[in-house]
Each structure stands twice: as C-alpha cells, then as structure tokens.
Amino acid sequence: MYASREDIGYDFGDDSKVGSKPIKPNPNIDGGWAWMIVLSSFLVHILIMGSQMALGILNMEWLEEFNQSRGLTAWVSSLSMGITLIVGPFIGLFISMCGCRKTAIIGGILNALGWILSAYASNVHYLFLTFGVTAGIGSGMVYLPAVVMVGQYFQKRRALAQGLSTTGTGFGAFLMTALLKYLCIEFGWRNAMFIQGAISLNLCVCGALMRPLSPKDIVSEKYVVRSNSEDNQAKTLSHSAETIKSNRVFSEELEKKEEATNDEVLDSVQHIEIGGKSRSGRNMYGLRILKTASQLTVTVRKGFAIWYSSYFGAASLFTNRVFVAFIIWALFAYSSFVIPFIHLPEIVKQYNLSHQDNIFPLTSIIAIVHIFGKVILGIISDLPCISTWNVFLMANFTLVTCILTLPLMQTYVSLAVVCALIGFSSGYFSLMPVVTEDLVGIKHLANAYGIIICANGISALFGPPFAGWIYDITHKYDFSFYISGLLYMVGIIFLLIQPCIQKKQPREKATDEAQV
C-alpha cells in the first residue's frame, strides 16, 4: 500500500530493478487524456479558488447589509476558504473509497447548494452555515481530486502541468472579481450568489472528466525514468523517504490481511447465494442485496484501513520529518496570501484610492501576475539543472518580504508593484503538489496533500478574522500584515532547518561507524 522506492523515485543504491521490465508506457501519461485532466483542474481552480479570491466584493456587501463588525463578517469568507482546505484529510478517505470522479461530482452539487442557500441569508450566522460550511465542504470535495488527478497523469512534466492547472486561480480571481462586481451592481448580492450557484454546477462536469487510471497504468508509472533535476532533488531529500521505505513491509502485510478478509466475506455470501438458488427463487433478491451490502462494507473497510494507516498507523506520514516541517510551514503560510485578497478593498478605501482601484483593482493585478508566476515557476522547476525545492524556497522568501513591506506603501503605484510581486511569488502554489509527491510518493499524494491543504485551511480560517479583529482594535491593518509575515517567516525557517538536520544525521552516523 505504501510507496515503494520506485513510487517515490528516490535512489537507495540498488537500481537493478528500475527500468528492467519492458512495460509499454501509457499514452495518457504525460499526454492524451492527461491534458483533459489539466483542463478539468484548471476549470475547478477558476470556479472554486478564483471565486474565493473574489470574496472581498461580497464581504463589503455583507458589511453594509448586516452592520456587523469586520472581524465577525470576515469569518464568512474565512470559513469557506478554511473548510475547503481543512477537510482535505477526510476527503482523502472519500477518494480511497469512491475515487476522484464520484467525490468531485458530489462536491460540485454540494458547493452549488451552498451558494444558492446563501442567497436567502437573513444574518451573518446563517452565512456561516450555508456559505462557510456547506459550500466549503463541497469545494474541498472537488479541489483535492483536481490536484491529485494531475499528479497521477503526469510524471515528466508534473511542475508544468500543475502550474497550468492552478493558473485557474489567477484567471478565476480576475474573472470572478469582475463578474461578482457586475452582478452585485445589476442584480444585488443575493441574486449574484444565486447565479454563482448555478455556474458552480459546472463543477460536476469537471468531475466527470476525471477518468481514473487503471491499476495497470498506475503500476507502469513506477518505471518512468526520472529527469536529472528530479534526481538531484531526490538526493537532497532522500533521507526523508527512508522512513516511508521502512514502513512498506507493514503496509503490505496490512493490505494482504485486508484482501484475505474481503475474500472470505465475499466467498461466504456467494456460498449462501448458491444455496438460495436450490431452496427458493424468492430469496434471490434478498441475497443480491446482502451481497451488494457486503461488497460496499468491504470497500469502506479497505478504504478506511488505508486512510487510517497513512495518518495514525506504523506507516504514518508523520514519521517523515521534512514532511512535518512542511506541515508547520503550511500552518503559517496561507493566511499571508489570503489576507490581502479579503481586506485590500477596505485598505484602498482608507487610502482614498477607490477611483484608481475601480479602473484596475489591486486584487486583479495579483490575480493576473499570479497566472504568469505559476507557469514561469513551473517551467523553471522542470529545467534539468534547477531544483524544485530551491525555487519553492526562493518564491516563499519573496512573498514574505512583500507581505512585510505592503503596509508601508500608501500610493496606488507602490501598492500595485507590491501586489504584482505578491502575485508572481505566490505562484509557488503550483509547486506544492510536486514537492509533496517528491517527499511521500505518488500513491500517498492524496493523503499527504490533504494534510498540507488542511494546514493551509487552518491558516486561512484564522487569518482574515484576526486581521479584522486587529483593525477593530487599532483601526489599522498594519499590525495584521506584520504579525502574519513574521509567523510566515517562522514557517520558512522550519523548511530550511529540517533538511539540513536530515543531511547531517547520515554523516554523523557514518562517522560513528568509521570510529567503531
């Protein structure tokens, strides 16, 4: 069940088996239907992440409608963004049992329902339930499968594929900001949310495009030859994968035990069904129902066993120290990106820059440059001589610098420049699935990335309300950006320290063995 070294792609010193089997590559890997998966993921990012980046428009409407504090009103947007990501680990359970396609279609229906019900809100607390929780869970059920499917269909051009698909966030933020602003002016915010709910039903179409790979296709991916850049990155992070490798024996035994139990259950049901044929035809219908229920129980048990062992078993992902540092970084990072989107319209209003912002909104500048950032950073990361990990770190340093300097800018031009840098550097989001896959392997991308976006969700959940609460006290957003930027820097330091510790430990071990 857990990733073998071929899955992860790391070199443990024995390359005799890699590439030894003449398996014909699947034409849909890195081509063919893989590009339809990219298109599906691109549309998902437009409809989900793009819409959430445009919630600053609705946030201002809710402030005027319900006359609540900025801190309380910001919880609506934060709940939607946060729950979309926080439910990641639990969506991994759905994916294990139902697959990405079914999970995404159900999520699309739930997301549309949340938008439509929110059109009838009578107070902010009603929006907490309909928009924050209902639409948020639906968004999470579509978002994670969209990311995982791209990771399954691409090996050689993963960073580029993830970059292209996640540019939907930038396109969506630009398009949805303009769309929601127009709909609110023409029809009011309630009708705007109703129309947006109807548009969100297209998520079901995106889910239908997520055609699953056959087990044979997934197995053949193990023998795909990695590029030189991936090999260099693998050497840097190889010690992190050793924990996953050591837990493989436990995982295989657990899977065999599950399969044996499943066979016993189904065999017993089939035996009863044969006996039922000889006794009475009237019992056949009941036996078929029993067999279907048994198969469903087996599927649920197997999916839950895989999900549980990934998080809490001996093969837990949390035994990977670099991955744990990655989680700590994610807890602080995302709020620094979300806060400007939610509160920039209010900041512009405070600085009396509404006229310039109406001509070309600052959030649109972030969104447009964000598109180019994801594509360019993806292309750079796929170069043979470039490490994805280093590109990821450099983009993080640029973003945290911009967050810390944003409160110092009080003219439209200076704010536009900083927003452009925020948009470009935040393109590292397209590298997050790639880095996660390099740490844990393709088999565990769903569960591992679910944990990462869950941490991001916690960050998004508390970030905007915290900024609103600080404003209610100080009547300034400056301290919100300073505090979130410093916490973000703490997360980056964890990313820098842990790989250095991982490199140092094998050297110390080798020195001790030499002395002995």
TrEMBL record:
Main location per the UniProt record: membrane
Keyword field: Membrane, Transmembrane, Transmembrane helix
Cellular localisation: Membrane
SUPFAM superfamilies attached to this UniProt entry: MFS general substrate transporter
Recorded GO MF terms: monocarboxylic acid transmembrane transporter activity
Domain Major facilitator superfamily (MFS) profile stretches: 37-503
CDD domains, sorted: MFS_MCT14
Membrane topology, from the record: Multi-pass membrane protein
Domain of life (superkingdom): Eukaryota
Sequence intervals crossing the membrane: 33-55, 75-96, 103-121, 127-148, 160-180, 192-210, 322-344, 359-377, 389-409, 415-436, 448-467, 479-497
GO cellular component terms listed in the entry, alphabetical order: membrane
Keyword NADP in annotation: no
Name this polypeptide is given: MOT14 protein
